[in-house]
Amino acid sequence: MTDDVLPHAFGVPPLRARLRSTPDDFRVDEILGYEPDGAGEHVFLRVEKRGANTDWVAREVAKFAGVPPLNVGFAGMKDRHAVTTQIFTVQLPGKAEPDWTTFPHADVTLTSLGRHSRKIKRGALRGNRFVLVLRDIEGDRAAAEERLASIAARGVPNYFGEQRFGLGGRNVEQAKAMFAGRRVDRDKRSILLSAARSHIFNGVLAERVRAGNWDTQMEGEIWGLDGSRSWFGPEAFNDTLAERVARFDIHPTGPLWGQGETPAGDAAGELERSVAARDPDIVTGLASARMDQERRALRLKPTDLSWRWLDDGALEVQFALPSGAYATTVMRELMTEP
């Protein structure tokens, strides 16, 4: 299901605007959640890049440091068409650090923050902070601010963003071809498996947005703990659960499909099975790939959401999101692009 047909939680977005007019209008700062421990073989390196791909920067850093690419670690991919900061680790056993200020790419700045005992692993970050600027705006300011207030209060449907599905959304079709026997390399296989699971998740969430229960409970609900991959249920809904939902301590969840049955029961389980049944080749392929049944929160609440109108009529929006969430998923409730 492509982004343009996914239903909105709050109705038609009130603005038409351009996002990413330049990379400077889309700033992402990684929230790693810890500092270098001061000892070890790994250099803790702050990387600021503009208009560059994370994988490419990692390879160039390895080449500059004279180490294999496997010696460079980072927690997550950052947008190419943006200004981003994140942490790399570079393993330099028994070697002095190079002069990072002489790195030969003008749009990448490297700063050593000290030594660390371990390589950063993929996914090992708390989240990201975004500063986004919308330009060439059409629409009503008051309606936009009302929509932003609704997003701050209720969050948004936690759709996987279009980045997950590749250019033109083709990753899902490529995943189906892989399940039918087409050979792909290991890195591509992981990307396609993720796209296939995300496709079913977005389909379930879309149905719940249409029904108006994307941020509340259904019979047979599986609940996810905020900021955690842990989940529990189904169990009878009560005042205690209602209070936890209201303060965003727990969230209703949807399936990251895999082998076996969804743990959701009653109406929630019936919905998830019916959506998955639309793509039997994906269901069979994920089971054959031995993917486990996992869960993802259906709602996403930006933290520290704020906004201001700039002198030139542009709108600046700031917020933080947990790891695995998409800024474009937040912004699609506010705006569409021409």
UniProtKB/TrEMBL annotation:
InterPro entries: PsdUridine_synth_cat_dom_sf (IPR020103), PsdUridine_synth_TruD (IPR001656), PsdUridine_synth_TruD_CS (IPR020119), PsdUridine_synth_TruD_insert (IPR011760), TruD_catalytic (IPR042214), TruD_insert_sf (IPR043165), TruD_pseudoU_synthase (IPR050170). Its EC number is 5.4.99.27. Keywords: Isomerase, tRNA processing. One of its GO terms (cellular component) is cytosol. The keyword tRNA processing applies. Residues 155-300 form the TRUD domain. Pfam families: TruD (PF01142). It comes from the Bacteria. GO terms for biological process: tRNA pseudouridine synthesis. The active site is at D79 (nucleophile). It catalyses: uridine(13) in tRNA = pseudouridine(13) in tRNA. One of its GO terms (molecular function) is tRNA pseudouridine(13) synthase activity. Responsible for synthesis of pseudouridine from uracil-13 in transfer RNAs. Belongs to the pseudouridine synthase TruD family. NCBIfam families: PRK00984.1-2. This is tRNA pseudouridine synthase D. It comes from Luteibacter anthropi. The gene is truD.
